Amino acid sequence: MSTSPDMSRRRLLFGGAAIGAGALLAGCTSNETKDSAPQTNVKDANAASAAPGKPVTIAFSAPAADHGWIGAITANAKAQAAKFSDVTLKVIDAGKDAPAQIAALETVIASKPDAIVMLPQDGAQLTAIGKKAMDAGIIVINLDREFTDAAASFSLIKGDNYGMGVAAGHYIGEKLKGKTDAVIGEIPGIDELQLTKDRSKGFADTLKTYGLTVKHRVAAGFTVQTGQSAAANLLQAAPKLDAVWNHDDDQGVGVLAAIQQAGRKEFFMVGGAGSRDAMDHIKAGDTVLTATVTYPPSMASSAIILARLAAQGNGMSDLVELQVPKMIVLQSETITKDNVDKYLPLGFKS
To answer: Domain named Periplasmic binding protein: which ranges (predicted)?
Structure first.
C-alpha cells in the first residue's frame, strides 16, 4: 500500500481447489492478539506432482498479522510448505511498510533461494524488487497485490477484486430492483490500493445496470478501528440508507459496531471476504449483514504449490502446458443465509 498502516486481511481457504477453479474468501483487519491459532486449508501431498523431487528453498514475505485474512495468508503458506518434504520455507519479516519489505528482500535475493512468494505491502512499490529477483534467476510468485510490470513475476495468483464488486452489485441490485431512488453506501478499504479501486469500479459498473449509484462513500483502512470510524461518518452523512457494501469483513467488525451503536436498522449490508464472524451473523440474522462476497486467502497455499512446481521445472498435471500459468484469478462467490452452511467450515476469525 502507498501508506502502510499495520494492515491485516482475510482468511478462509480451500488450498488445492483454489488453483483449479473458483475458490473462496477474503478481508482485512487490525493486528490485535487473538486466542485461537489461524485456521488453515491446504492441499494434501497426494497428487502425482507431490512425489518428492529436487529440494527447493522458498522465501515467503507478507505483511504481519496473527489473525484475519493476512494471518490466514501466512498460516496457509507455512502449512502448505510443511506438506512437502522437499521444500524449505524461509519466512521473511516484511516490516511495517514497503521500504522495509524491500530492504528485507534485498537480503533474501543475495541468499539466492529457488523462489520467492511475495504478498507486497504495495504492488507498485515492490515491482522493482520483484524484477530484480527475476533478473537474478529467482522465481517470483506475486500474491494478491499485483506488480505494475508483468516481468517482475513468474506467475501471479490473486482474487477477483473487480468480481467482488460485481457480486456485491448484483446482490444489492436484485434486492433493490426498480427502486432507482435507493440510497446506497460504500465502505472500501485503503483507497490508494489498486485492489480497492478495482472493487469499487466493479461495484459501480454493476449498480449502473440496475439504474443505481453509490450516494455515500467513506473509505476505511482494513482495520476494525477504521471500519468503525468510517461507518460512523457514513451514518452521520446519510440519515437514511437502503443498502451498504463494506469491502472487508475484518474491518466489518468495526462497521457493525458503529451501526449497532447508532441504532440503525433500516438498511441491509453486504460484506467482503468471507470471515467466520460475518457468516455467523448471516446465519443468525442478528444484524443488518445479510450477505458477503468471497476473496480466498487459500491463494497462499496455492502460491507455495506454484512456486515448488516452477522451481522443479514442472507444470500442473491437469493441464497440457509444461509450465504453470502466468496468472490465476480466483472467483468471488456470494454467501447468503441460503448457502452459508456450506461455507462455514471455510471461514476465518476476524
So the answer is: 58-314
* pLDDT at 113 > cutoff 50: yes
Of 317, 320, 309, nearest in space to 48 by CA: 317
- Pull the grid cell for residue 157: 495468483
* 3-class SS of residue 271: strand
pLDDT over threshold 80, residue 97: yes
**Residue in this structure with the C-alpha cell 437514511, named with its chain if needed:** 240
Count of CB atoms situated within 10 Å of the CB of 63: 27
Angle at 11 between CA 8 and CA 12, to 5 degrees: 175
Helix 276-284 × helix 249-262 angle, to 10°: 40
Rounded to an integer, what distance in angstroms lies between the CA atom of residue 336 and that of residue 319?
33
Whole-number percent of the chain with pLDDT over 70: 86
To which H or E segment does residue 171 belong?
A: helix 161-175
Please choose, from the candidates 8, 157, 176, 96, the residue with its C-alpha nearest in 3D space to the C-alpha of residue 185.
Answer: 176
The yes-or-no verdict on residue 38 having pLDDT over 70 is no
Cell triple for 298? 487459500
Helix (H, G, I), strand (E, B) or coil at 242: coil
Residue 185's nearest CA partner among 152, 233, 133, 137 is 233
Quick count: other Cβ atoms within 10 Å of Cβ 220?
30
Residues with Cβ within 8 Å of 176's Cβ and at least 6 positions away in sequence, in order, are 182, 184, 210, 212, 242, 243
* Kind and range of the H or E run holding 57: strand 56-62
Smallest CA-to-CA distance from 291 within 302, 301, 282 is with: 282
Taking the CA atoms of 201, 203, 207 and 213 in sequence, report the sign of the dihedral they define: negative
C-alpha cell at 169: 452489485
Q: Give the SS3 label for residue 159.
A: strand
The per-residue pLDDT for range 223-239, each reduced to its tens digit, is 999 999 999 999 999 99
What percent of the chain is predicted at pLDDT more than 90? Answer: 77
Q: Could you give the CA distance from residue 295 to residue 43 in angstroms, rounded to a whole number?
A: 18
Q: Interior CA angle at 99 toward 38 and 246, to 5°?
A: 50
Q: Which structural domains are found in the chain, ordered by start?
A: 15-160+298-330 (3.40.50.2300), 161-294 (3.40.50.2300)
